[in-house]
Every structure is written in structure tokens, then in C-alpha cells.
Amino acid sequence: MNREIPRHAVPGIPVLIGVVAAILTAIGLFIYAGQSASQYPGNPQPELVGTGVALIFFAIFAAFGLFAVAPNYGAVLQLFGRYVGTVRDPGLWFANPFYRKNKVSLRVRNFESAKLKVNDHDGVPVEIASIVVWRVIDTAEAVFEVDDYKNFVTVQSESALRNLATQYAYDPHQDGQMSLRGNINEVAEQLKTEIQARLARAGVEVMEARISHLAYAQEIAAAMLRRQQASAVVAARTKIVEGAVGMVEMALEMLEQKDVVKLDEERRAAMVSNLLVVLCGEHDVRPVVNTGTIYH
């Protein structure tokens, strides 16, 4: 594998000054040669013209070696296909004019994947998307190990997201079960780990990965909504019944402790039934006055 090699180039300001000076000198020689030719037709002084041309070629050749590096950028240097090193220091620099210089951004980037339709662990189709925050940490791997590291990040992130979605159910079906909707932080951490494992070869560091969109697929959204509503109703009814049973039990114990009334089994069953109707009913209870007894 190609690893990044730090390289320090020659400062470019002195070279730039030399290039400008060479061009100005060449122009001055051309002007002087022209004036000499007009004043002394028999003495054209071709050596001045040759020197000026040589200075122009030197200036152009040196100018090809100048390159600028912006903050949070790296310049990957190659000589005839061989990796030479990477210049990360910002500024104007000079290197061998035959070097090929590829600029690579080291800044933090992020992208949001497309909404993918996948089947979760239970085979239920869901729509899922993610946001990935990443940056290049090794310019040599980013340039030489993969064909296009930006496209590589996109494709591998979506592949990792698809794989993650198949490992968990959308909703938990039992206590303690991991799910896409119920364990957002844990799922995001695993997604980051899986994407990083895929992008390590490209010299990329994944700083953050999280799910940005999660929903049932449109063709089953209505049915799953009814299922969620039914589950919520069952859960609420369970809590109501548990509370009502506790209240009935407490009421019977207090009646016995304070010796308010003596209840046989039939009266006890009737009171339990009435209390449960009052406590578990959805509508307000309308009392009925009984002037007789439960035996007649």
C-alpha cells in the first residue's frame, strides 16, 4: 500500500522573483538589441537576442515548478508515475517542473445518502438514509489506492448502510432487543465503525455517521401504522388493567381492615366487577341505585 510521505518543497517567493527578473532582463536585452541594430546596422549583436531567448525559456521552465498549497490542502507530487511525497504546508512553493502535482482537500466534508429501500431483519421494507462526516487523512492512499476516493466514499457508505439495516428490526418485538428506531445512538456508532472499516484503504477518516431518515416503505406504511396504534392501545390497556386491579385490591383490604362492611364471596365478586367497570371503562360511569339486594 502507498503511504503518505511528508515532503518540504523550496520556498516559491524567491523563485517567483527570479522568474520576473529573468523576464524583465530578457525584455531589456531585446530592446537594447533592437536599438543597437537601428543605430549600428553592421553590428546586430545576436548574442543579446540569444541570451534574451534563453532567459525566457528559463523563466517559463521555472514557472512550471511553482505551485500554491491552500490551508487544509495537500499537493501530491509524482515524477514520471512514481510517488515522491506530499506537501501540506500552505504557501507558494517550488519543486521540480517535471513533477505532476495533484491537489487533495483535507477539509471536513459531509454528504447525505439517497433514501434507500431495504428489508430490515424481519423482512419488512423500510426507507433509510444517513449523513456521513469524513475527511482525508492520507493523501497517498486517497490518490493511489482507489480510482475516485469521493465516489468510493459514497458507494461504500451506502453499502454499509444497507448491510446495517438488514441486521436490526425497525421496532423491537421484545424487551432488550436492538432496533433501528429504539437504539439510535448504538446503531449510529455501529454504522460509523462499519463505514470506517470499508474506507480505511482509501485514507479516509469517518468522523461521524448517523441515520437521517427512517420510515416504513410507502406500500406498507398504512398497515404498520395501524399495527403501531394497536400495540399502543394494548400497552395502554395493560397499564390501565394493572392499575385497576391494584386499586381494587387496596379498596378491599381497606374495607376489611376498617371493618366497614362484611362481604361474602358473591358480594366481593360483585364489588370487584363494579370497580373494574368504573376504572377500566372508556366513558364516564352512570350510577344505578339498587333499592333491593343482590339476592332478589
Describe what this molecule looks like in 3D.
The structure is a single chain. The protein has three domains: 95 residues, no CATH class; 108 residues, Band 7 domain (Tetrahydropterin Synthase, Chain A, 2-Layer Sandwich); 59 residues. The relative contact order is 0.09. The termini are far apart. The chain is rod-shaped and about 140 Å long. The longest helix is centred in the last third of the chain and has 40 residues. The chain is built from seven helices and ten strands. With 296 residues, the protein is an alpha+beta fold. A hairpin with a 5-residue loop joins strand 8 and strand 9. Helix 1 runs antiparallel to helix 2. Strands 7, 8, 9 and 10 form a four-stranded antiparallel beta sheet that branches. A three-stranded antiparallel beta sheet has the order 1-5-2, with helices on one face. It is 48% helix and 21% strand.
Q: Provide the domain count.
A: 3
> DSSP strand (E) fraction?
15-25%
Query: How many E-type strands?
Result: 10
List low-pLDDT spans.
none
What profile does the largest beta sheet have?
4 strands, antiparallel
Please name the fourth-level CATH homologous superfamily of the largest domain.
Band 7 domain
Judging by the overall fold, what is the CATH architecture of the largest domain?
2-Layer Sandwich
Overall pLDDT confidence: 81
Enter the CATH topology name of the largest domain.
Tetrahydropterin Synthase, Chain A
CATH class categorisation of the largest domain: Alpha Beta
Helix-strand category: alpha+beta
